[in-house]
Amino acid sequence: xxxxxxxxxxxxxxxxxxxxxxxxxxxxxxxxxxxxxxxxxxxxxxxxxxxxxxxxxxxxxxxxxxxxxxxxxxxxxxxxxxxxxxxxxxxxxxxxxxxxxxxxxxxxxxxxxxxxxxxxxxxxxxxxxxxxxxxxxxxxxxxxxxxxxxxxxxxxxxxxxxxxxxxxxxxxxxxxxxxxxxxxxxxxxxxxxxxxxxxxxxxxxxxxxxxxxxxxxxxxxxxxxxxxxxxxxxxxxxxxxxxxxxxxxxxxxxxxxxxxxxxxxxxxxxxxxxxxxxxxxxxxxxxxxxxxxxxxxxxxxxxxxxxxxxxxxxxxxxxxxxxxxxxxxxxxxxxxxxxxxxxxxxxxxxxxxxxxxxxxxxxxxxxxxxxxxxxxxxxxxxxxxxxxxxxxxxxxxxxxxxxxxxxxxxxxxxxxxxxxxxxxxxxxxxxxxxxxxxxxxxxxxxxxxxxxxxxxxxxxxxxxxxxxxxxxxxxxxxxxxxxxxxxxxxxxxxxxxx
Length: 498
What we know:
The longest helix has 23 residues, at 451-473. The chain has 498 residues and is of the alpha/beta class. The strands form 2 sheets. The protein has a 10-stranded mixed β-sheet with strand order 8-17-16-15-14-13-12-9-10-11, sandwiched between helices. It is elongated and about 80 Å long. The mean pLDDT is 96. It has helices at residues 6-19, 24-42, 57-71, 89-95, 134-145, 193-196, 208-213, 223-226, 255-267, 282-288, 324-336, 345-353, 371-378, 384-398, 433-446, 451-473, 480-485, 487-492; strands at residues 48-53, 75-81, 102-104, 118-122, 150-153, 176-180, 198-202, 218-221, 244-248, 272-277, 293-296, 313-316, 342-344, 366-368, 401-404, 410-412, 418-421. It folds into 2 domains: 6-212, YjeF N-terminal domain (Rossmann fold, 3-Layer(aba) Sandwich); 227-492, 3-Layer(aba) Sandwich (UDP-N-acetylmuramoyl-L-alanine:D-glutamate ligase), CATH 3.40.1190.20. Helix content is 39%, strand content 15%.
């Protein structure tokens, strides 16, 4: 699913109106119907609702929502904020259709929203490009200070669609946002988490063929996007068809990371999996996952000597530590490996301390840092947009992909496309989750997935398995091993036979 900029979004609206054909007023009605249906599904008629509207098309959407909720028996008060902006034609027409409206102007500061149990924010939409001030800022501040949850339509008012880093105005702190048809970039950025809360896509029937024509470097990966990338097995397939993965993992006290990565790799469908571990880790691996073969380093507690990599897809990093001899092992491993590999955890930290070795990374390799590991690798960033610019440059210069782990995990490839993930939950912020991801991506890469597809499918399946686990046991109790346990059903959802 494409993530478009405000100009493109307006073009899609205009094209839909022209080609369907449908009037702009009726398209607004359709958007309002979709949003009100979502609200009616989530909230009962016992709610005391305030719909706060601006005077543009986002406000027009709000007026439609207010009217439809009123018609469905909800207790709704509709507020229109005179921000001084011009009134859209669609707003004016919908204003006539709402039975009663409360107007808020710069001279009317005696208002509040504390009596309501739900606030619906429709002040500003995607067209906002300057900070909020005056009465608009006052209204936003009063919304934020109320105890009621806030539902924003399309965008939290005050938030810019793309780069919000220079925005000093007031911004609605929404608990939920209903994004019309497509996700917006700023809804996916970690620095905006206090404003977005969570978001849900609400279809409004915009022209899909025209959307597909729009160029963009930002993609939102959902089930529809990922499913065609899945490679099903044929009837006469054998284990040799699904590759041989080699995972260089573990050190004293960190064999759990090794076990999780190897288990996840096998569960992702690798035909053969070999674990390369310190000598003392052999029994742990053989006991924990009998499906894997085990090779051992000469040293008892760390990885040191070289290992044969020909014909194997390498994943390295989980639990290996940063001993000087392990550093030399990684340097030699990078030099000896000619095909794309997966690099994680301490392997990234070692590279951050020995940046000249980055040139040894095989083209098409996938690095999977968490934020601190990423910072060590590329240096600190000013904001999320600066972070992505730095990662893009790193990927382009080194012909690699970087998976930036977190909410809406982002995959940046060497041609500077960013893929934002739709699956995952806060319960996955637990030790070992990243090791599982390394195993999954390595397992897919060894089966013949391209680097890009291995990263995309791996990140999606990892998050979906976490969502399935969370549905069973909640966020707080979720363990990394629970993600592995739910991988089967995650992959089943991608099967064309399902």
